[in-house]
Amino acid sequence: MGIEERYLRVAAEVAKTAQAAGRSPQEVCLVAVSKTVGEDGVAAAFAAGARDFGENRPDQLVPKAAAFPEARWHFIGNIQSRRIHDIVGSASLIHSLYQARHAEKIDKAAAELGKVQDVLIEVNVSGEASKSGVAPDEALDLVRFCEALPQVRVRGLMTMAPQGSPEEARRAFEGLARLAADIRSQLPDDQAAAFTELSMGMSEDWPCAIECGATIVRIGRAIFSDSFQE
Ligand SMILES: *Cc1c(COP(=O)(O)O)cnc(C)c1O
After folding, report:
1. What is d(CA 185, CA 189) in angstroms, rounded to the nearest whole number?
2. Ligand 1: residues within 6 Å at CB?
3. Probe target for ligand 1 pocket from 35, 218, 225, with the most ligand atoms within 8 Å of CB
4. 39-47 vs 3-20: helix axis angle to the nearest 10?
5. Cα 24 to middle of ligand 1, angstroms
6. Ligand 1: which atom is nearest the Cα of residue 203?
7. Closest Cα to atom 13, ligand 1: which residue?
8. CA angle, corner 151, sides to 172 and 120, nearest 5?
9. Which among 25, 163, 94 is positioned nearest to 10, based on CA atoms?
10. Which of ligand 1's atoms lies nearest the C-alpha of 225?
11. 20 to 30 A Cα–Cα from 4, which one of 75, 143, 186, 220?
12. What is the CA radius of gyration of the chain?
């Protein structure tokens, strides 16, 4: 199977899973994580209908976003201060914000570029030392900090679940969904209205994430790797 076929199959499964969970397929955005392929791989997925792509390195994000301006580009990687201007210049949504000092720099870069930057707050729900993100009980403070920045708009939360244990992954997804609902209930109406996104679920665990309320799934290997086994 090639990339086009795999993309079509995953997109159909995502829609089916959303429906089976009692949700509308339009509620779940499939982000094709193209970090392991070049522009030819992106072109194959684009031809199959993919319009949302995820990258975790600015060096990949910038040229691919320039080559495919009709697509929406999601930055899902570690943020480094010196690359923030590049990221803001190319990303429609930054999933991986968890430091106030980066939020301030995103605000400044977005002002220079004449845009409002949509962001998600990355939360380390499972508390694993190897994972980045704010602790759950610090997320609301960071959301409030960002709401004071005019060029930054917080759209929701993102997490990476522990790998290898479906039970732990489900706990992390349920935890993120609960935390988002809790934060939303404490925001003023206009901010709550924009705070709608839950980015969670990757190749190995996305069906469970959709059942738990994901509005964005980030899928790489199941689309772009011919050796991925479900
Ligand atoms: C690589 C990556 C993904 C995609 O992972 P797969 O297991 O290949 O689907 C999703 N989210 C983030 C943050 C990633 O770095």
Report:
1. 9
2. 33, 35, 56, 76, 160, 202-204, 218-222
3. 218
4. 50
5. 24
6. 9
7. 76
8. 10
9. 25
10. 8
11. 75
12. 17
Looking at ligand 1, which atom is closest to the CA of residue 35?
1
Q: Which two tokens stand for residue 176?
A: 């993120």
Q: Give the position of tokens 């319009």.
A: 51
Cβ contacts of residue 218 below 8 Å, gap of 6+? 31, 33, 54, 74, 76, 95, 199, 201, 202
pTM, 2 dp: 0.97
Of the pLDDT bands very low, low, confident and very high (cuts 50, 70, 90), residue 230 is low
Question: What distance in angstroms lies between residue 72's CA and the mean position of ligand 1's atoms?
Answer: 17
pLDDT per residue as tens digits for the range 196-206: 999 999 999 99
Instruction: List, in sequence order, every beta strand (DSSP E) within 159-225.
Output: 197-199, 216-219
